[in-house]
Structures are given as structure tokens and as C-alpha cells.
Amino acid sequence: MPDLILRKTILSREDIFHEGGPPPERPLLRGWIMAVIENPFAGTYHEDIQPFMEELKPLGVDMANRLAAALGGPGAIEGYGKGAIVGEAGEIEHGALWHAPGGYAMREVLGGAKAIVPSTKKVGGLGARLDVPVTHKDASYVRGHFDAIEVGCADAPRAGEMAVVLVMTTGARIHDRAGGLAAADIEGKDGLR
């Protein structure tokens, strides 16, 4: 199993105080964390890539802890998502290795969140941007939490790297009024409603 080689991490927090209309009672916090790592499979085809997910698990937990702390702690988090940008010497399947380590890390850190962690991935060059989807952590059908956070880094991913990402929010979109299931009405039985 290849070792994880980390080049750098980036942590970003956005405090939204106004979106037009009346100011919210408290600002909406949105954040993301990216780890730029060496892609051990770049450049050649490898049949068995799944063992690398074990190497990614501790990174996922560390990233989830750091991001939650930057947004007020695990109890403040309501929305989440994950993603990966694979450098051009890799393949999109390498980004899929982040699904379990990134998702389960956030669920663990956030105390057993029930909803599937939405995800996206792509192959891209230096400075590639990625829109990472967001849903409510306990019920995927909470329409007010449907969102996306754009992430990227000017010097990543290099051809032989991957940039793995987690995103979190502390609430719904400001002034959400598109209807549907409200966060206050979540039953929490199946991760959907």
C-alpha cells in the first residue's frame, strides 16, 4: 500500500452577514478544507487501488476536525459535502477513493450524521475549480441546505497530485424560501427526511 504524501492544506472560512433583504439573526458560516496529496497511481494504470483508502482515513478525520473547529465546532455544523480534483496524470477513479474516507470522517466528527455526503470529482490542471455540493447532514431532502461551495488552489493539483476536499456550513442559505422539508421537521430515520 502506498504511503500518503501531503504537500499542503488550505482552510477557508466565509462569514455571510447579508444577502439582500433583512439581515439574518446570525451570520451563515461556510468553509472548506483542501489537502493536496501525491497521487500514487498517476502516470500508469493500477488495477487494485482500494487499499489506498485506508491511508486516506486519518487525513479525512484530521480535515473534518479542523474544518468543524473553524466553523464553531461539530455542534454548529448543519451541511456538508466532499470532492476531489485529480491532476492530469491521474484518472477520475482516483478521486473516487475519497468517497469513503472523506464521508465517514465527517459523519464521525459530526456525531453520526445520517445523510449521504454529496460529492463531486473531476480531472483538472493547475488552478482547476470545483463546485462541491452541500446538503443537510441528517436529511438529504432539506431543500434550504441545497448549495455548493467553489474550491480551488492556484498551484494545485500538479499532474501527479490530487486535491481532496471537505466542505461544511452552519445552516441553510440565507433567506431560503424555496419550500420543501424544513430542518426543524427532520425525522432523522433514514438520512432522507
Blueprint (SSEs and pairs):
Layout: E1 6-16, E2 28-38, H1 52-70, E3 79-86, H2 92-96, H3 99-109, E4 119-123, E5 129-136, E6 147-152, E7 161-169
Parallel strand pairs: 3-4
Antiparallel strand pairs: 1-2, 2-7, 3-5, 3-7, 5-6
Helix pairs in contact: 1-3
Q: Overview of this structure, please?
A:
This protein is of the alpha+beta class. The protein has one domain: 2-Layer Sandwich (60s Ribosomal Protein L30, Chain: A), CATH 3.30.1330.110. It contains three helices and seven strands. The protein has helices at residues 52-70, 92-96, 99-109, and strands at 6-16, 28-38, 79-86, 119-123, 129-136, 147-152, 161-169. Strands 1, 2, 3, 4, 5, 6 and 7 form a seven-stranded mixed beta sheet that branches. 38% of the residues are buried. The model has no long low-confidence stretch (mean pLDDT 96).
Name the shape in a single word: globular
Might you state the CATH topology name?
60s Ribosomal Protein L30, Chain: A
Helix share, percent? 10-25%
Give the termini distance in whole angstroms. Answer: 39 Å
Query: How many extended strands?
Result: 7
CATH class: Alpha Beta
Under the CATH scheme, which architecture would be assigned?
Answer: 2-Layer Sandwich
Summarize model confidence as the mean pLDDT.
96
* Structural class by SSE content: alpha+beta
What fraction of the residues are assigned to beta strands by DSSP? 25-35%
Low-confidence stretches: none
Rg, nearest Å: 17 Å
Query: Helical element count?
Result: 3
User: What would CATH call the homologous superfamily?
Assistant: BB2672
Number of domains: 1
